[in-house]
User: Fold this.
Amino acid sequence: MTKAKGYELAKSASLRSDFYKCHTGAVAIYGNKILAYGWNSEKLSLMQARYNTKTRGFDGHKYKSSIHAEMMVVNKIKYLDVDFSQVRIFVWRGKTTPMLSKPCKACEKAMRDLGIKKVFYTGTNSYISEIYN
Assistant:
């Protein structure tokens, strides 16, 4: 599956967001197979709260931890029997023009913990890729 298609799928996932500030979508792709879609949401997430506490310097259980698009994807795929080092995550933020959607420290840690190494996200009018070690 092409990078352009990955971004297109993440953009379509962002349309499901109910978050009031911005709409972010994510998709996990393994080979040519879509594993899961995610979007940021006002819904609270214990997994997001745990990772916020570990990585972002505040008590994620005391403060509202709304789920991020990437964390929703990780939560959906974490029990699949796949080689996570070959999973690609695409993240889109913005309505029509891409905006910066670099994963936060909590989401990055969750992806690394699962073994995901390839993350592609939008920048301000651009596209960025990262390979995690």
Summary: The CA atoms of residues 51 and 106 lie 5 Å apart. The domain at 3-131 is CATH 3.40.140.10 (Cytidine Deaminase; domain 2).
